[in-house]
Design goal:
With 362 residues, this protein is of the alpha/beta class. Helices cover 23% and strands 26% of the residues. The protein is built from 11 helices and 18 strands. The strands form 4 sheets. Strands 3, 4, 5, 8, 9, 16, 17 and 18 form an 8-stranded mixed β-sheet that branches. α9 links the parallel β14 and β15. α4 packs across α10. The longest helix has 14 residues.
Length: 362
């Protein structure tokens, strides 16, 4: 066992605080990763505050992990010490069901093992990326291409794959009109990826406050959903609407924006249940769908795609001491567009080099 510094929520809705956790010994097929950067996802807040149900505490959040391999088990064949790697939202699955065998480990029929707030096969709680090190099976570790710096690559392990997977599945590309609903941590990557895939991209956001950013990141059009004229003008326009928001929506209104056979795909997960008049989908043979992350193979494909097209997240780099403030800013939509923790600052003796956390990089 290895003792490492981490930031954890000791109880539901409690501020995160510095602590220590135990990492398991490196097994035959494990890699030990020195975490360099960890993204802050809205999912971290939902889980640390039990918005999605009962959780396991103390909780070390973080499933957007980028780092360097520092040790490998004797059976490891995919990675070597010094490799640049990432870990996303899951660290294991049954590996035997039809979904796992099809490379859809995210939809494991027995339930995948989350990177944090989960129990592993030995019944031990998993702890995430707000920590100095992590031990992960090589089969749930991905390679970060040299073309991506680790800080802007970290959010791709959730925000990148969560938007890439549905855009690929619903065939976003040339000739398709894609709307990205919400211009935040997920949404800004959805815009970049949909544009790189060759689709015509529209951002649907509450206001026009981020319009210049949206157009710069690859959107062709930008509309405010607070303006009723938007729904009149765009009625029947889109093949795909990718909803990245975690707040309740008027789904009937957004379904009206789809073409025949169009799909409204949810990757944001509101804490509240929704209601829906089924005539919203019956008329026009429309689909209201959802999508999780991607499997390990698809996550690697996404990273390679992003490296090829020069797509990294737009980030604000912060120190670990700023995590609680960052949570509040995420809830206030005051981040452009992903907070990333410099994990060297997690240790009491870690770096505090005065970096400007407002610096945005891609």
């Amino acid at each position: 066992m290895t003792t490492v510094a981490a930031y954890a929520a000791p109880a539901s809705k409690a501020p995160l605080e510095r602590t220590t956790i135990e990492r398991r010994p490196v097994g035959e097929f494990d890699v030990l990763i020195d975490i360099k950067f960890a993204g802050i996802c809205h999912s971290d807040i939902h889980q640390a505050r039990e918005g999605w149900g009962e959780a396991i505490f103390p909780m070390v959040p973080g499933h957007e992990i980028a780092g360097i391999v520092s040790e490998v088990g004797p059976g490891v064949t995919r990675f070597a010490v010094g490799d640049r790697v990432g870990v996303g939202c899951m660290v294991d699955s049954c590996r035997e069901c039809e979904n796992c065998k099809a490379g859809l480990e995210q939809y494991c029929l027995k339930g995948n093992v989350g990177t944090y707030n989960a129990l592993d096969k030995n019944g031990e709680p998993t702890y995430g990326g707000y920590s100095e090190k992590i031990v992960v099976d090589e089969n749930f570790t991905v390679r970060i291409p040299d073309g991506l710096s680790l800080d802007v690559a970290a959010p791709l392990l959730c925000a990148g794959i969560t938007t890439y997977s549905p855009l690929r599945h619903w065939n976003a590309g040339p000739g398709k009109k894609v709307a990205v609903l919400g211009m935040g941590g997920l949404g800004h990557m959805g815009v970049k990826i949909a544009h790189a895939l060759g689709a015509e991209v529209t951002v649907l956001s509450q206001s026009l406050r981020k319009k210049d950013d949206g157009l710069k990141l690859g959107a062709d059009h930008y509309y405010a959903t607070s303006d009723p004229k938007t729904f009149e003008e765009l009625r029947g326009s889109f093949d795909i609407i990718l909803s990245t928001v975690s707040a309740p929506l008027d789904f009937g209104a957004f379904l009206s924006l789809l073409r025949t056979d169009g799909a409204l795909v949810n990757v944001g997960a509101p804490e509240e249940p929704i209601s829906l008049n089924l005539f919203s989908v019956i008329g026009g043979r429309k689909s209201l769908s959802g999508s999780g992350i991607g499997g390990i193979q698809e996550t690697q494909e996404m990273l390679d795609f992003c490296a090829e097209h020069g797509l990294g997240a737009e980030i604000e780099l912060i120190s670990a001491s700023e995590i609680n403030d960052a949570y509040e800013r995420v809830l206030a939509s005051d981040v452009r567009y992903r907070f990333v923790i410099d994990t060297a600052t997690i240790s009491p003796s870690g770096r505090t080099d005065g970096r400007d956390p407002s610096v945005r990089r891609a």
